[in-house]
Amino acid sequence: MIKITIAGIGYVGLSNALLLSQH
């Protein structure tokens, strides 16, 4: 479960970075 949580956080961080780069 811990690995899934870390992967989730990483995915959210990557999504935020992509959104910021688009703006």
Automatic annotation (TrEMBL):
Gene Ontology terms, MF aspect: UDP-glucose 6-dehydrogenase activity
Native source species: uncultured Sulfurovum sp
Name of this chain's protein: UDP-glucose dehydrogenase (EC)
Keywords carried by this UniProt record: Oxidoreductase
EC code: 1.1.1.22
